[in-house]
Fold these 2 entries.
Entry 1:
Amino acid sequence: MAKKKRIIYTNRPWEATGICSGCRLCELYCSLQANGTFNPYRSRVRVVEMATGIDIPVTCQQCQDPACQAACEFDAIVFDPKLKIVVVSEENCTSCQACVGACPYGIITMDPVSNKAIKCDLCGDSEPACVEICPSRVLGALDDLAAAEFNRRRAAALLAIDDELLRARPGGEDPVMKKLEKKG
Amino acid sequence: MRIRVHLYPPLNNAAGRSRLEVVLDGDEDSLQALIDKMVEQFGDQFRKLLYDDRGRIVAGWCVFINQKPPVYFNQPDALATLLCDGDEISFLLALAGG
Amino acid sequence: MKSAKNCYAGKILRIDLTSGSINSEALEDDLVGPLIGGRGIASKILYDEVPPEIEPFDPENLLIFAPGALHGTGVPAASRTTLTCRSPLTHMHGDGHSGAQWGGELKRAGYDVLVIKGRAQKPVTLIIDDDRVELADADRLWGMLTSRTHTALRDETNIADLQTVCIGPAGENRVRLSAVFHNGADKGVNARCGMGAVMGAKNLKAIATRGTGDIGVVDIESLKAAYKEYVEIINTDPHPVGGTRYGTCRFMYHRVQFGIHGAENWNYGAYPWEKLDPEIFRSDYQIKAGSCVACPIRCRRDYRVVSGPFAGTTAKVEWETIARSLTCGIKEPEGVIAWANICNHYGLDIEGTGDTVAFAMECFENGIITAKDTDGLSLRFGDTEAFLEITRRIAMREGDLADTLAEGTKRAAETIGAGSERFAMHVKGGEMTAGDPRGMPVRAVSYATSTRGSDHLRSNPYIEEIMKPEEALKWWGSEEAADIAKGLKGKGRMLKFSEDLVTIGDILGLCKFAFYRSATFPWLYQKGVTLATRFYNACSGRNLSEEEMLLTGERVWNIEKAYNTRCGASRADDTIPQRFFKEALKGGGPSGGTVVDREKFEAILNEYYEDRKFDPQTGLQTRAGLERLGLNDVADDLAARGKLFGN
């Protein structure tokens, strides 16, 4: 029986090219897969640029208890029994944006062209486009067990080189972080 | 065995030619042996282009053997690569172009 | 917001800062057909609308922003945006190309080209937010560093993904060595030719852009097939592989192997370089291996200094930053990173700035400039403190000397006089780049013929390093074209080809390291011509042949050449600093003791002119040559001005 998967940022900080380079090919090819055009604002994976040199791809965590689904009052976020994740039903979506506000990862967004909510649907049946295109191989479609194994390995590496990594952060102003700090 | 060698710049200047044939005797059959033979033939200027002060081949050089994907000298067993009679080898400065 | 079928947005946005008018017009086939996009279209608009009667700082000079035709698509390394204007540095054609995302954002907002004319009365920001285009007050931004300008705009607009273009204090002060920066200090630059000063002269502080529309692709399967082939090459071709490992630092090995550093104002070919070893940058200073948008190679580098007097300093550093630091005698990484930080935040082009500082250093070493002129600075080669401080002063025009240097090497030498012209290293006013040309004849001529002043990126001067004799025979008609030191025949033809070749990159918005540099000629051609053409056809729906693509490059080159001719350039200006002809390269090493052989230089230039269909005596273009490219209107215009051969 197929297990539920989610796209995980499988960074390997112990490798020079094992972290997100900020190329955003994932955004471009996600939108190509979903819409046949190139548009990062229609991508379901979004790369967030923080201070100089830090780019992090944020992906839908395919929550067990999705906040987006709970927030939707129009049955526009429905369970797909094959993929075992929730997906957006375009017909029912009223563009109210309740799901957008509810998601703790900010990764369900409004498509600027269709004006409907969009979220990662693992590219349906095919190999996820973002996983396939990433030149640094830092995106993986993992089920829970595989994700756990990866997380354990990464935790070990981070503990081993923790200090070095933190020193690597150059500091400087990040407007998003500043806002979050102000919120307290 | 006879090895056909193509030297790209600036090695070809040090050798005075771009194309040459190197004959390796008896049990000499490695890339290292080929390089040693050429250093012997072309001398110090040639050697200095390939080797740094610590006796390692300078990063940036690689070889193509019979058009196959290149062997980089910072790969661990690069110099032990075995050659065959009639092989065509190009010495290329991989990091040209700024 | 718009939906698109192919990779074009379909419109040109025109801004007049004097009147405040904002208009858009359709991007017509008469531009797209023969010129495709990016640098191609920008060069033609400049030719048509900025005649030599308009001076660089006149309001009628244009700033033409043109993302490459493939920018914003998923074509690998399609990340380049051209900025074109009449250059206040060379007084001729000026342009530069940035690898940041802004250009794609402009297209997503609905515009393939942005043309800015006029001068605002007070500092303004141009805001392009999908359909909303307006000019906003920028008083409080004026004076800000490039980095602050970007974060201030993101804060104010509350748009986290806002893409910006701006100038720093150097551009505001009309420093002719200033550049135009994308997304702050460390993302991308339209550098060379003093274009930041034109933006400053227009009182345009920044352009803030968000575009959420689609960019299309007509044939997705063809795109993907070409992508697959491309990836196979870059995983094997040592050139991009080296880029992934070291970033552009890797060119250090090249300069060492050939002994062509250009150290101490282009005096020394071999030089103490060991502390600047790419392995050291990689292990001790690298933040991470980054990428320009859509690029799988990862050759951009941000470095930071962890300890010592510059602890905490970070900067985007590329090879030319290190090269120009060596030109100033700086031999260790921390000085390089600190200098890059100043240039990037104040808004200076490191290329021109480095050469100008080196010029000043050589003047100081020779007593032409004294401690009195420098206000106590010991402006000697290798003095890091002086290096940093004079750079900052140049950006701020602080003090008479810095004010003079801010005009660029050529003008500074004219002002200072006293024999300093001998130390002024530029071509047509554009300062020297890349490596020393002594001992490498094609490289020497390539610096002379570039249409924007001395420039190695205008061609592929390395092509002679990767050619096999039999390939040279097939392509340029002689085996000796592949022999750097001794060959002559075929080199002029080789140069023309390499210029047309890389021009394709700027038209399409493809990075030169990704497509126009390679360890072998077959790979170079496969990437730069074959795959580039297939990518373009897949995204645009057109059906160009490889010959037509190369012809487009040739066409664009000819427009720029005509522009320069119109500004007064002739064969006499297709030359290089006298130092390279007259003074033997110092410092020993593989190229030590060489000069550029004048006879060889002229012979290659002759063959080049012939292949380009220019008159060899005058360097003027011919009607036949221009009409062959469909540039009848350019021929007519040149003829009317008495600048066409035979007219």
Entry 2:
Amino acid sequence: MTWGDVSLITPEIVLTVAACVILVQDSWVTGPALESDARGSAGAWIALAAVCVSLLANFRATGDPGVAFGGMYVRDHLTRIIDIAALVAAGLGVLLSGGYIRRARLAAGEYYALLLLSTVGAMLMGASRNLVVLFLGLELLSFPLYVMAALARRSELSQEAGLKYLLLGAFATAFFVYGLALVYGATGTVDLAQLAQAPASALLGAGVALLTIGLGFEAALVPFHAWAPDVYEGAPLPVTAFMSVAAKVGAFAGLVRVFPLALPHLAATWGQMLAAIAVATMITGNLAALVQSNVKRLLAYSGVAHAGYMLIGIAAGSADGTWAVLFYLLVYVVMNLGAFGVLLLLERRGEEADRLEDLAGLAGRAPWAAAILVLCMVSLAGLPPTAGFVAKLYLFRAALQDHRTALALVGVLTSVVSVYYYLRVAYVALSGDASEAVTVRRSEPAGAALAIAAAGVLWLGLFPGAVTAAVQQAVTAFR
Amino acid sequence: MIGVSIVPGVLSVLIVVPIVGAAAVAVIDARREMAVRTAALLSVVLTFLIAGWVWIQFSPGTAGLQFEEQRTWVPGIGLGYHLGVDGLSVSLVALTAFLFPLALWASANQVHGRVKAFLATALLLESGLLGTFMAQDLVLFYVFWEAMLIPMYFLIGLWGGPGRGAAAIKFFLYTMAGSVLMLLAIVAVYLRSIPVLGVSTFDLPALLTRPLGLAPPVQSLLFGAFAIAFAIKMPVWPFHTWLPDAYAEAPPVVTVLLASVMAKAGAYGFLRFCLPLFPEASRAFGPLLSALAVIGILYGGAVAWAQGDMRRLLAYGSMSHMGFILLGIFALNVPAVQGSLIQMINHGVSTGGLFFLAGFLLDRTGRARTEEYGGIASAVPALAAAALIIVVSSLALPGTNGFIGEFLILLGTFEAAPGAPIAAILATGGLVVAAAYLLAFVGRVFHGPLREDLRGMPDLRAAEYAVIVPIVLVIFWVGFAPQALLSRSEATAREIVNGVQASASAAGPPARPAVLIDPAHRVGGPSQSRTRSVVREPAGPAGL
């Protein structure tokens, strides 16, 4: 390990150190109490500062790809895009959750520390040049999420969600490790750069299939998605919000690193497999979302559906498909957190207002929040002039270019289905009368986060040029 | 990215003014309703003035785009921000800008509750509609095309009648299901630009400089994807089932916008995209679409006649009249296409007028069905007179605007091809049906013995005169002096028709269609078209 190696991983180090500081500072202030009313915890601010520093480090970095730790870690444009996606998710997550954490008396220090560590995991997955590092990132991403899902100590649903997530997640990671072993057995290497020369073999195929299970679980691809609705529903709302985007960022970073970048020569084989999974995921996610009356579950299935859309870009196997996925990830982070952020403002008699009817009459009480919710729903549905439309256009373009017409067809037709449930949410928020039981909790940080998310959705929808150029560069630079 | 330093062109201003108006409306305190309404009206009137200026400045006789603006939008994949108006769109832009002030003005009496949100949404709709008519980049067009659905969904769903929620989502899902396939077709056309033009671009004029060389089955598929999107929007029988619900449930002023402006976007799409991009498929499917048009004319008319609900009657009647426009488009000759273009404007004015009147009646009595009225002509003579004028214009009597359009369409269709006269004769039957249902409407509502409970009904108010008088003026102006409209559309209509027919002559005998017109009627001299009908690749793929 050299000084150069350390300077390359500055963004990760900043977050990790901040997580440790938060834990110490928090226990200093709150003492032994599990549910403290002490207001002195500076977790949110430390986390926010760390995220900003890490973001700056990413923007400041030069364009040359740097390799560290004996070629196991790489910091190139792709890493930077993934980092930005993960850090935006973390930053917005921190801003959005403050009010909720205080109201629900959750352990603030642990929450922010775990959130930062999980972010580091997603970033590491984007920076991995080696399957072992990818595995490390996957574990670092998911373990904090297991704990965070169970953070509400008094809620049985939350405990159940944490346990379910842990058990199924451990199962999926085991598949991943097994796949890693098979790949090593087949090729004699776990280095992603060297895999590109590996000849096709049944053993390698089996290994790659098992890796797909591990990553597919984290991305909530069908048929590995069964955990998502229950965990999304049971976990505390800010955790659900962060998890819904961070897990996707990490998983798709891994998928991009493994499939189009490391195994381009076998695209004919895994392309078919991923295309089939994408079709199943888009159809299942969208159809299941149609019948949900709980907004958290609805957004869980919507997350499944979006994983299916993004997989189109991976299955296309081309550079265009890959940068389309990166663009989609960035868009997904802002639009999904915008939607969750509005839910986080609401409270029904001290509980989460996560039923569809709780949104009724929102436009009358909080017109701006309702407008942002509508904007995010329109974007999730993939309608112009929002970012969701541009992101889908890129994906369908890549699919058609690669002659995967069936994928594009399923994509657009399921998008029509999705309009039904997204617009239902928007419609409820704009019509009807507000329920007495539901209150709107305004807070400045949450307002700022919502404004950032809404601006992101509009900016990426109306002026996508700069970000498009950045994600295109991320892919071409690798070749 | 759109450069900030560059002064926006006048067409961009047209799109931006309503958005700025919507933003202004959104920040004004909702309790200051007068201020909200004034801001909204100011922005639509300003839009109308700018659109009127564009219409007057538009120089007739040239086929190409005017007031063009072109900038890169997303250079990485060849997306452009390209606006322009030609003979096809300049009058539609003016029509849109003309109807919005009337609709927002009329909404003062008809829309109560959440006025601010209503006006902001309507302004966003105007922006989307204007953009749809001006966009010259395929994706930019699609952005406006889909973006206008969202405000329309909320206008129907939040301010409509009792069945508004269902009608709104039905409208949205239908139109979106139609247009997503168009999105894929747009991308497929774009992917052809790389081998054919050497650059990847979504720019329509650029794509039209050379034939795309699509194999006939592919061209048919792509044509179909575009055509279904436009057919649903118009709507063409059998894609019309969303129409009666949406038209009848929407607030009356929104129905005006649906019928008068949004339906035109479908017809416009056929002329702007289907015919130039897929000339061979347009000729191949022309007879089919003409047949659907005739069915729509007769079916819509017959169903309209049987309706008891005033706005459903007008809705089916509107659909029947849209059939004439489709018939004219796919006659594929200059008189018929010109007739269609002028009929789009006429239909917008006349149908808009009828729905305005229906809104006035609903506002007075709350009664939706025609049999609940009767003999009100003696109570509201001015309203009855206005209704008669607009009905007569809708029936295409000489001296009104409707005459010249339908006459040209039928004339063109008669000359179109062997077999086409049958379509024209059947369509003429549609005129008789129109007389039946429209006069039945007038008879049931305005004539006969006056119902006692309607005796005290107030006649047209000053505010309502402000809506009806401009419409009546346009009806007579176009009726007596259609030259201003015709001259603006002529060159473009000729270019579109020549483009389609030129591909037939390039295709060789096997592809020669049945709908080739008599050369004597290719009015005018040599084609003034862009290079498209001249530049042909030697191994004309059109003949494949």
